[in-house]
């Protein structure tokens, strides 16, 4: 029975739904004559299934088993057949979505009078669940359920913001944890020269406690009790700080491991670097499928050895203000009394900025680095995907090829104009420009395997080409004779996805989000997109993590214990996990671990 959109958009209210008294909406025998309101009530509450039921034995010694409710994929993952319902009274199986939402004449069996040929049940179920009509009915069911769920969420949303008031000491610890998280997140030192409130040099942690006391009533009461010695436990000592740092770091690592296990498909980037105490530190990045006086205007900047972007920042002031830079160097030669500084200024003025080769290099590098810097920023975005990276690098290669043909001579003309303005002889030695084609080849290999999954390309493939791509992907994901996908079924799922996929979806992130809501319908497509989106397109995340490590080691102290450093580094680098974390479990764990304070939480 088909349900129109106008009926779908009605608000569901159990008090307003009045089914005919003599009809049991949960009995499969009645599913062929349900009203729209009955269907909406049935979809809202869901078809009932007895997971422990065991059917009677037929003449062949076969019977229904609840294992039929589970679909086993080729990669040994399991998928619930939530559409399958068994009637104990009739000893028959029914497809809920096909019986309720079908628009064509029934073919018999699962979508009509039921199915009880237990000898061939396994093959019949597999044949049915990959059928086009079944996919359409599943899509109808999911769309209606999602819309009804959204209506219910809107009605109940206002009540979810009200929370019970927590125990006083748990509120105190919650604020203490927030202070630890803040200091760790921004790489600030915790302690000073003493550990007493309102004394000079007591450090950032106690300073923040004092600041909160001025505005927060919970902390105001807590500080009052501490100063009046009404309590012996105040959670301000360095031991408590270290313990909280370790617990928070462990919590973050646990959450990361949990997400990785849930994702199943992930990639790992490893990198190492020595810290200021000459101890080797390893960064592990897991990706899964969860961005003046004389020189006017710009200031000259030194070249950083770690930040690639610093190159364009260093060249830009010189390129745009060459005349002013030379003038500044000339004044330094005439006014400074340090012989070394005078010699360096003279060398820079006459042999660097006064050399045509240097001028031409500045012009060329400024144009090239400006273009590369734009591409680099796009490739370092957290949500960058393979097709975007390939497209950006392809454009960059074309730019370099074109620049070699026409841009180089244009740059020489600009350099000659600058040289004439500042009185430099315009002579230049040409040097080759390196190509990015070698780096581009790796992306092309991945594109050949996964490129067909991107929506724009997927919609253009005919059935033969799509089947070829699916079998290529199956071989690529094969290990010890087993693959994470079944090419034949993946091909069927992708053909259906292109049929139902909304037009505004044009990237794999949105495709995965869309089909994940229908996980029982497109299991192999979900696996394929998970693998695609875990491919690391850039190593920028690992390099950024070392920036955090340098901040911790250099700005706090090089004698920091490795355990404390690991905790701070984990919190600092993955602080976003803590922003959405529920502290209740952590607080309870913290209280139980410290037996001397457990009475406060009774």
What does this structure look like?
The chain is 55% helix and 6% strand. The protein is mainly alpha-helical and 602 residues long. It has four domains: 5-159, no CATH class; 168-262 and 561-601, no CATH class; 310-383 and 393-402, no CATH class; 441-533, no CATH class. The strands form four sheets. The chain has a two-stranded antiparallel ribbon. Strands 3-4 form a two-stranded antiparallel ribbon. A hairpin with a 4-residue loop joins strand 3 (84-87) and strand 4. Helix 6 crosses helix 7, helix 6 crosses helix 9 and helix 18 (487-500) packs across helix 20. The longest helix is centred in the last third of the chain and has 37 residues, at 386-422. The radius of gyration is 34 Å and the shape is flat. The chain starts with a helix and ends in a 9-residue tail after the last helix. Mean pLDDT is 76; it is low at 1-21, 153-165 and 594-602.
Compact overview of the structure:
With 602 residues, the chain is mainly alpha-helical. 55% of the residues lie in helices and 6% in strands. It folds into 4 domains: 5-159, no CATH class; 168-262 and 561-601, no CATH class; 310-383 and 393-402, no CATH class; 441-533, no CATH class.
